Each structure stands twice: as structure tokens, then as C-alpha cells.
Predict the structure.
Amino acid sequence: MAGKEKQPKIITDKNQMRTWTRAMRTQGKTIALVPTMGFLHDGHLSLIQEAHKHTQLVVVSIYVNPSQFAPSEDLSTYPSDFEGDIRKLMAVPGGIDVVFHPHNLYDYGVESARDCAGNGGMAAVSCLEESGSGHETWVRVERLEKGMCGSSRPVFFRGVATVVTKLFNIVEPDVAVFGKKDYQQWRIIRRMVRDLDFSINIVGFEIVRDADGLAMSSRNVRLSPEERLKALSINRSLSKAKSAAERGELNCKRLKNLVVDEVREAGGELDYAEIVEQESLEVVEEIKSPVVILIAAWFGEVRLIDNMEINI
Ligand code: PAF
């Protein structure tokens, strides 16, 4: 594709975004959405290539969503490089059609900032509520959002489900592509789409890893070389447990211990490691059907997540 780079249209206004989609649809075009928070890496670019297999047009949203960050989390330090992102998007085979880059999806005008206490009685508050936006409508996927990342990041999935709903309502795509690295998020979005009757096909794309095995993430740039080396224990531990399961070890406690020991010995601080049923995300004690091992661990100031499916 050298020499055939396509300049995407950049849309920042939600009404203009919707108008574009509707105009394309009257021409019979189908549209895929790849939602991102920017600082794109090859994992995101693979999602875009996957999107091209499903529709004629591709929209990438770049929006760091404040409602999925708790005030104690890394919203202000979340990396961004909009110019670099555009260059990368132009170099993707087939390019993309639109970058939707809204400034603030929770700005409803002057009257909106009156009441910022609308957190549904939850003790946890997001950066958005702290900033007093006045937004008080939330999408919750009640059971799937509990446990794992939902335990350590209490506002996270509520924020994700809400912003993805907003993006779906604005972009009105036929297909949306999500990475399976964020496994719990992917399952939650699928359930939300089913439960709320969105007419959108949700495609999950396999984890993309660097050559050393680390799952690609925008957070990886914040790892020091030593921390990165330690973080390789995540993929190693998951592969070890998967091989053991494939050799017949079906006891989840013993499999989990393999994961936990490997990461701790490397110097990682474990947030959680769980073996759960793939669709329901119910914790299992003995592998009897397809499961996924999910892990989150800290390496210095950086929290990484990863997972591996075991299809026995
Ligand atoms: O996975 C992400 O990057 C974000 O959680 C998403 C889906 C773009 C929502 O902000």
C-alpha cells in the first residue's frame, strides 16, 4: 500500500458524526467502529484491519473517557499522541475513513453542571463526577461487571458501558471491534448489546503480543526496561498454566498457583488471577468447559492485564 495513504476525515462534533454515518448509509455503505482511547499501537491497528473484513467503511474513535477512571487513577497521565495516531492510521492498509475525536462527550451545555452528586449511591466516584459534569445516567451490566477488574476499579465498567453506548448512539455502526485483551470488557459489551437490543455485531479480536510475549497496551511505554522484563512473567505464567491444563491438570487452584507463583517470583504485585467460564465469567474450581485465565498485576506504577483462553 506504499504511496496510497488515505487521509481520514477528522470529526469532533457528535452531530456531524451522526450526519456522516447517515449519509453513508443512504449510499448503501456499511460502517465499523473501532473505539480507542488513542496512543495507538499495533494491537489497535490489527483491530482496524479486522474491521475492514466486515464493512466497507471504518471509523476509529479516539477519546479518553473520564468516567471510567477513578480520581485516584491515571487519567491525567494517560498517554496521548494525536498527530502520531493519525500518521499510524494513514499507514494502515486500506486506511480508515473517519477519526471521531470529540472534546468532551459529557458536555451538555451551561445548565449541565448543577448537580454532580449523581453517582447512584455508590461510594466510588469517577473523575467525571469529581469534575461536576452533571451527567447522571449510567449503563451497568450488573453481574459481569463484578469481580476481577470490577473489584479493583469500581467505576470502570460503568464508565466503559456508558461511553460505548454513547459512541454507538452517535456513530451508529453496523459492527464494532474490541480487543480480547480486555476480556471482561469485551464480554460486558457483548452482553450489553444483547440485553439492550443494539443492532450491532460485536467482533472480538485476539490479543496481539510483542515478540517477547508482552500483550500490547498503551500502558507498556510507562514500564522501565527492568519492569518490562519482570512483566514478561505474565505471559509466561499464563502459558505455563495453559500447558498444564492441556496435559490434564484441571484443578483450578493448582493452575492458579502456577500463575501466582511465576508472577510473584518475578517481582510483580498481583491484583488478581482468576479462572472463569468464558461467557458467564463465573469462577470455576475444576475445568469442565472452555475457560479463560485472567490476570492483573502491578509492575512498579503500571497495572497490566492479560488473559489466555483454554478450550478443553
Ligand atoms: O478499551 C478501551 O480503550 C476503552 O475502554 C474504550 C472501549 C475505548 C472505552 O473508553
